[in-house]
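Recall that a protein's primary structure is simply its ordered list of amino acids. Everything else, from secondary elements to tertiary packing, is in principle encoded there. The following example makes that idea concrete.
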Amino acid sequence: MSPRKIIIDTDPGQDDAVAILLALASPELDVLGVTAVAGNVPLHLTERNARIVCELAGKPDTLVFAGCDTPLRRKLVTAEHVHGKTGLDGPQLPDPKMTLQDAHAVDFIIETLREEPSGTVTLCPLGPLTNIATAFQRAPDIVERVQEIVLMGGAYFQVGNITPAAEFNIYVDPDAAETVFKSGAPIVVMPLDVTHKALTTRARVEAFRDLGTEPGRMVAEWTDFFERFDKEKYGSEGAPLHDPCVIAYLLQPELFSGRHVNVEIETSSDLTLGMTVADWWGVTDRKANVTFIGDVDADGFFGLLTERIARL
């Protein structure tokens, strides 16, 4: 079977970085490009971080594109309080040497979906959905050409991590999320409900460090850095590794379970802006539009992640 073609849309972020490493270490996936968006930190840092991670993976030929630097209709909200001022705070890494592509990320997404056979490209958004929504708005014909969208964002039982009601990626650009969720494309969502079950533990972090490789050391040190925030916030023994769940789902979907339900995005309320209103119990007649993941085999997830990082 030929590798699955994917585009990773991302705002690195330490957990985004681990997701990119997982994808680049997996021969089952053909990473056509990495598109950066503003989110965890501003765009000039997210595109830089994406290139740093590709070089760390030993994949400097990966195509990296800069995309949208602001949400569709709102001011950018960032998360330096979690990821540090660079987005990849923790261990120091050299500036990237690989070239940023001249084309805009949105143009790359549109052109790739038009050029590749219909139904063969999966979009993997790990941050705010600004680039994806902009591409869909500019080129509605590409929506039906998407094989699948597998994204990290939202929450239902776990409610919010940036406001009481909203998860960060959706909150940053709820208008973009609404566009994508209403697009009709097949969507799989990795919400906080599942990522909060993929917690680092000391043993899991040390397993990365014990690989004895630079990528293994970096994953361990990135985790050491950002988990301090979540451990204090949630009182848990470790931190959720959000974004690698997207890539793990592509590799081993049997690790995950969820429901096909309706999910609507709140875009107008000051109180619940960015909330993903998931009809988990089927109490409305709204049409299901999303496979909303609710559980993960955490041991299997970390086993996969460690085995793949060891390949780099």
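The mean pLDDT is 95. The two ends are 22 Å apart (CA to CA).
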